[in-house]
Predict the 3D structure of the following.
Amino acid sequence: MATVSADAFASAISKTLEKYRDNVQENLADIVKDLSKKGAKEIKSKAQSTFNGRNYASGWTSRFDGGRVSSQGIIYNGKYPGLPHLLENGHANRGGGRTPGRAHIAPVEEEIVKQFENEVKSKL
């Protein structure tokens, strides 16, 4: 254990906290990046099984936006950007009826959120 004088105590604590912050940010960025890729794969497979392998499923991908302060994983459908909302929640038909929604995004989201919480707890 290192000995620190009273004058250098504040700077020693500051350096220790900076190292901890950097470690936490790096771990969170890795977790977010991995889970966003995994989530995109799972939504793609659920969309293929739910919608019989149509082109809609092939558009799912993920993007990672990481900065100094925050990390963000975005899962989206690049080919058909407006379609996931309509398919997940249902929509009105031309003749006045309504098409029911088919949940294929929400279950994956819940699973990814649980995995994120568990991984954050285990790594920190």
